[in-house]
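Quick one, tokens below:
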């Protein structure tokens, strides 16, 4: 997107031009964005690394939260070598981002992770041959602590639950098709942006534990359904506003890709 178009769009949120330029500069410095000159204008796009991170975040935000569980756990055993401390710290951050919880010292686990994402993490850090990845199951012949106790000890579900309930409280009023016609296209764009921003802030910290290991009234399931319904109601008008805003200055947006319509399991 051209910088001028980004400034115009973010003005709707009260973000001034100076702040936009500062943020874009910092994102470029951090390796998220790359720019090129098109005439007298700067056009920004995601770097390959930024695109990979975006795609991983995309899956976490828009994919179904409730995964089927076969009862197994994936364990990642980190190296105990003190010389590898920096690499281990990087890996711990990446594993936490992928939803893994710290089961024990140097051991991270998850009951239903994305193995493809895990492989990408290990290969990206060049640690594939430095860690052990194991599959484990509970042994029913032993009287051990309930697995839900392990989940409570390894993840901060209380903060996550609080975040989901706050999201629901903020956006429940938009869960009504009779209110949608009263919103302008610009309003729909603003609501959609804030909707995903708020939901993203919560769900990217969600390890997406199988339902069998969560409380029966887990608020994340309702929050996801609420986000889907609101998004469905307003996304067309939001896209129209964005296209018109960019087009007014002579720019153009690429056509929506097929995966756009796969968000939340499918948009009609």
């Amino acid at each position: 997107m051209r910088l001028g178009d980004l400034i115009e769009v973010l003005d709707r949120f009260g973000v001034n031009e100076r702040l936009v330029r500062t943020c874009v500069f910092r994102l470029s410095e951090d390796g998220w964005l790359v720019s090129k000159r098109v005439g007298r204008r700067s056009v920004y796009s995601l770097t390959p690394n930024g695109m990979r991170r975006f795609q991983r975040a995309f899956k976490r935000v828009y994919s179904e939260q409730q995964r089927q569980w076969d009862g197994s756990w994936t364990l990642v055993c980190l190296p105990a070598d003190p010389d590898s401390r920096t690499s281990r710290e990087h890996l711990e951050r990446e594993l936490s981002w992928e939803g893994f919880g710290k089961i024990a010292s140097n051991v991270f686990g998850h009951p239903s992770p994305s193995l493809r994402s895990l492989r990408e993490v290990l290969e990206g850090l060049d640690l594939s041959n430095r860690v052990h990845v194991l599959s484990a199951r509970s042994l029913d012949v032993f009287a051990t602590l309930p697995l839900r106790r392990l989940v409570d000890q390894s993840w901060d579900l209380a903060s996550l639950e609080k975040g989901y309930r706050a999201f629901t409280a903020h956006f429940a009023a938009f869960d009504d098709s009779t209110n949608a016609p009263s919103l302008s296209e610009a309003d729909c764009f603003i609501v959609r942006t804030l909707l995903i921003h708020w939901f993203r802030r919560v769900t990217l910290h969600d390890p997406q534990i199988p339902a069998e290991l969560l409380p029966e009234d887990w608020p994340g399931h309702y929050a996801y359904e609420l986000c889907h319904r609101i998004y469905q109601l307003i996304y067309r008008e939001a896209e129209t506003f964005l296209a018109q805003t960019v087009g007014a200055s002579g720019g153009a947006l690429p056509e929506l890709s097929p995966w756009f319509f796969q968000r939340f399991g499918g948009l009609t």
